[in-house]
Amino acid sequence: MNVQTPTAAERAEKLQGMGCKRKRVEDIRFVQGKGRYVDDMKLPGMLYGDFTRSPHGHARIKKIDTTKAAAIPGVVAVLTAETLKTVNLAWMPTLAGDVQMVLADGKVLFQNQEVAFVIAEDRYAAADAAELVEVEYEALPVNVDPLKAMAPNAPVIREDIKDKTEGAHGKRKHYNHVFAWQAGDKESADAAFEKADVTINELIVYPRVHPCPLETCQCVASFDKITGELTLWGTFQAPHVIRTVGSLISKIPEHKIHVIAPDIGGGFGNKVGAYSGYICAIVASIVTGRPVKWVEDRIENLSTTAFARDFHMKTEIAATRDGKVTGLRVYTIADHGAFDACANASKWPAGLFSIITGSYDFPAAHVLVDGVYTNKAPGGVAYRCSFRVTEAAYCIERAMDIMAQKLNMDPAEFRMKNLIRREQFPYTSALGWEYDSGDYHTALTKAMETVGYRKLREEQQAKQAAFRRGETRELMGIGVAFFTEIVGAGPSRNCDILGIAMFDSAEIRIHPTGTGICRLGTKSQGQGHETTYAQIIATELGLPADNITVEEGNTDTAPYGLGTYGSRSTPVSGAATAMACRKIKAKAQMIAAYMLEVHDDDLEWDVDRFRVKGVPERFKTMTDLAWAAYNKVPPGMEPGLEAVNYYDPPNFTYPFGAYICVVDVDVDTGVTKIRRFYALDDCGTRINPMIIEGQVHGGLTEAFGIAMGQEIHYDDSGNVTTASFLDYFLPTAVETPKWETDWTTTPSPHHPIGAKGVGESPNVGGVPCFANAVNDAFKFLGVTHISMPHDHWRTWVVADKLGLHAGEAAALGA
User: Fold this and answer.
1) Does residue 458 carry a catalytic annotation?
2) What's the CA gap between 784 and 34, in Å, rounded?
């Protein structure tokens, strides 16, 4: 009986490599409740820590009395700044080159700032004792408005640096000034505005929001006094960075620090930096000689850990009468809170905000950003974006809509007229970035045709007429957004954190039986790394993805890497994985040539094997070669089949997308219904379409939350008024709309597998698309710009100010 040889396509399908909708392997444990998270850990003799926090937004500390707290049964110790000063740990460096109090030293700078750390036998005793720490405060003037931070009489936020004229990024122009950063050619931009036929000038504010991952920040620190070694388990998006920072702060040699990030319940940028809880848990373990666990609650997470956005952007566009953009100027005030704790690459204090020219061919542009201190929590992380890219995308997409309105042009047509053309790639923007590849017109055309854009505009015009006649109380809006993101931080010439270049790494070891393990410097928080990295290896090496174990998060076993955030995993670590595979494949080819008694050049690759050119029946599979690597290598060759690659990308990658949203706004209630949302993404080579779709769904849901209700709001006294989910909008399945996803594929020319990254894109493009849709609904009534968030109340207020709730006929000129 003849046994039919599997075809190349059948063999490729069996591998479940790139392009396959492979099910997420990590979900097997998650759906059964078998994930292992930090708070699941129970170590012998473990203690628990909790913070006493400030009720004030700004106050001097006159006295701290820990007597009553220390008397609570089960309390082991209470730490204050004075305690930490004895071990030189009262302040810690931030990733942005600033310093930050671990525990309040002399005064508090924002509400809920950490003042004392209680260590107890159980978390209940710790919580009870934290409330009994007595602190005498002297209230000070508060400023939570970044636009007033550099006023002559503004309260001094940072007394420790008020007389310093130099900051981490150059000259300081005020005692509350953090940095000034600019990009572009101001002279050329100014000249464009002098010659412009039409200009717009609008203050566009992206309010302060919070990543609010499902799992809050937490850690367990265990110091071994015998060996002098520290083991730290925690919710770390960048474990190696935490190890390095921990060593710099604690002076414990780095080789004696072991950082482990187990399963993480979401990160979104919130878990990149170092927090006071980590430092206090470490100190507490060193002092007591016992493991110490710290787990924050939701209010602590929302009000004290790293925020996102809070950019106030004065935006100007210059254009010709026929709709060609000629210039862009943006001046931004960036609110950094009480300390500059942004998680940006060191050379970019405003992140990659200079991607603000977006997808458009601006001949001239200039951007200036002033960072300022206020009485708010520090942070400024990339909440599901790449280093301030979401702020830039929101700003330019709102501004393009505003300019289209002034020109009386359709917003999609205005964009189409100004998009960078395919033949212009690689394209250098007016702000200096080299976009790798793109086919923008094809993407926008596909999006418009798929949703029936022309018919939607006709329907909108009919509904506007009906509204004027009083036949409906709903307004229809159509939002268009076309974004380009800059991800894959990053090239060492551009990016470092604390002087460490932002490369990433992969170590692959193939066992004799043809299975393998891949260890990486990234850390998944839900992205599906265990699934997708194995698919890259399956395609590159011809070994089934099911036979590859992917391991991350343990600094003892993983090669040094800069972690997962800003859509850098696939662009950087995915590239390292492919390059390590190619090292292995090159060695396997030499082994195959030796076994088949031919020259290396006489072999060709065929899915999962090397075969002799012209004689396809003579071959060796990668499984055969894995076995041979341990017993039949050519003379002089080392046994084994493994490789390490540290990948320093030559450039960023530039994913893009075209989004269209249709909304119906009830002017009587302010309720906005999302009728349709279509998202087309181009992330280059698509590794796993199902995971991409899941990432897009998640990102769009977060974008929906941000645009339609999220804001970390402070009152004038510095009180956080949105510090729980009672007041901070987190969409559930009830509120979340249905998403339509689509794609085009434009591979990155410099990436080993052509991939660009996708995890952040839906948040970057989704927020301005929702905002444009709501604004578009009111546009025919003469409204130019409505600020986010577009919750029911604020939308109702807009309608009320337009006179739509009383005397509607008169207001509409009927």
Assistant:
1) no
2) 51
Residue 385 falls in the annotated catalytic set: yes
Give the span between the Cα atoms of 776 and 398, in whole angstroms: 10
- Dihedral (CA of 176, 182, 185, 191) sign: negative
- Report, in angstroms and rounded to the nearest whole number, the Rg of the chain calculated over CA atoms: 28
Active-site annotation holder among 385, 395, 518, 661: 385
Q: Is the pLDDT confidence value at 810 over 90?
A: no
Q: Identify any residues that bridge with 360 across adjacent strands, giving them in sequence order.
A: 419
CA distance 334 to 179: 10
Residue 791, token pair as written in the block: 């919750």
Q: What is the 3-state secondary structure (H, E, C) of 338-401?
A: CCCCCCCCCCCCCCCHHHHHCCECCCCEEEEEEEECCCCCCECCCCCCCCCHHHHHHHHHHHHH
Catalytic residue among 243, 384, 568, 611: 384
Q: Which of 534, 431, 466, 525 is nearest to 15 (CA)?
A: 534
Tokens (6 digits) for 686:
């698509």
Spatial separation of the C-alpha atoms in residues 518 and 504, rounded to whole Å = 13
Of 212, 172, 105, whose CA–CA distance to 711 is shortest? Answer: 212
Return the SS3 of 179: strand
pLDDT tens sequence across 314-337: 999 999 999 999 999 999 999 999
Structure tokens given for 765: 């493009």
Please check whether residue 731 is in contact with residue 668, taking contact to mean a CB–CB distance below 8 angstroms.
no
The reply to whether 464 belongs to the active site is no
- What SS3 class is residue 516? strand
Instruction: Specify whether the backbone of 542 is left (phi greater than 0), alpha (psi in -120 to 50) or beta.
Output: left
Distances (CA, A) of 511 to 51, 521, 595, 608: 48, 21, 19, 16
Q: How far apart are CA 107 and CA 138, in angstroms?
A: 9
Find the farthest-apart pair of alpha carbons in the chain and give their distance in angstroms, rounded.
94
Under 8 Å between Cβ of 226 and 286: no
State the chain's mean pLDDT as an integer.
Answer: 96
pTM: 0.96
**Active-site residue flag, 695:** no
Q: Given the residues 329, 519, 760, 794, select the one marked as catalytic.
A: 760
Three-class SS state of 112: coil
Residue 807 has what pLDDT? 53
Question: Given 237, 460, 535, 695, which residue is catalytic?
Answer: 237
pLDDT digits (tens, 9 = 90+) for 622-643: 999 999 999 999 999 999 999 9
Burial of 552 (0-12, 13-18, 19+ CB in 10 A): buried
Give me the mean pLDDT over the 53-62 stretch. 98
| Amino acid present at 571 | P
The β-bridge relationship of strands 257-260 and 229-234 is parallel
Q: What is the 3-state secondary structure (H, E, C) of 660-675?
A: EEEEEEECCCCCEEEE
pLDDT at 809: 42
C-alpha 379/C-alpha 273 separation (Å) is 9
H-type alpha helices, 597-638: 622-628
Contact assessment for residue 687 and residue 698, using Cβ atoms and an 8 Å cutoff: no
Residues with Cβ < 8 Å from 703, sequence gap 6 or more?
A: 762, 763, 765, 766, 767, 769, 770
Amino acid in the structure at residue 194: E
CB 433 within 8 A of CB 420: no
Q: Provide the edge-to-edge strand list for the sheet that holds 609-612.
A: 603-606, 609-612, 615-621
Question: Where does residue 642 rank: exposed (0-12), middle (13-18), buried (19+ CB within 10 A)?
Answer: middle
What is the percentage of the chain residues whose pLDDT exceeds 90?
94
